[in-house]
User: Fold this.
Amino acid sequence: MEVLKTLAVALSLGTLAGLNLYLTVLVTGLALHFHWVILPSQLAGLEVLGHPTILCIAGALYAIEFCADKIPWVDTAWDVIHTLVRPIGAAALAVAAMGDAHPVFEVVAALLAGGMAFSSHAAKAGTRLAANTSPEPFTNIALSLAEDGLVLGGLGLLAWSPLVALLLAAIVCTTIFIFLPRLLRNIFQSLRLLLKKARSHFG
Assistant:
């Protein structure tokens, strides 16, 4: 059961990192630094997130993302840059969460967390790309705040019940994977439309 709970924490953190890696690291680190939550011994590897250096870097990067995430097309450019960053960060969080587990379990957790992060990232990026076809900026702001709220809510749920958090994360990621081909087609269609508009605009 303890191994399952450890895996639940690793994969749930990975899913949330796909939405906002820096907020996930920052809030988790603050909770550990100020002892808002007490980690069981098998999750002691996550204590590093409470180090002041990591908190400062995560806070600075989140501040940048907080602003970039609310500007149309800047948010999409930011998502493109983080297509690799978020899954890799999620994999690193999973390895830290697994602690002294057998290397095989660490690799499996890293792969699963990276995949779940990619699925939540793809949903986020696709939604933002669709929203950017509208000229008003309010949708981007609302989506950004909603995503941050999901991360905070997910972390709260994770602290309350890792297994419930994992169940919800698995349902969400499975649903995303089912609709991922359609989502990718919509992303590519939006990009082609954008490129066509840019060509016509610049002659």
Q: What stands out?
A: Residues 2-201 form one domain.
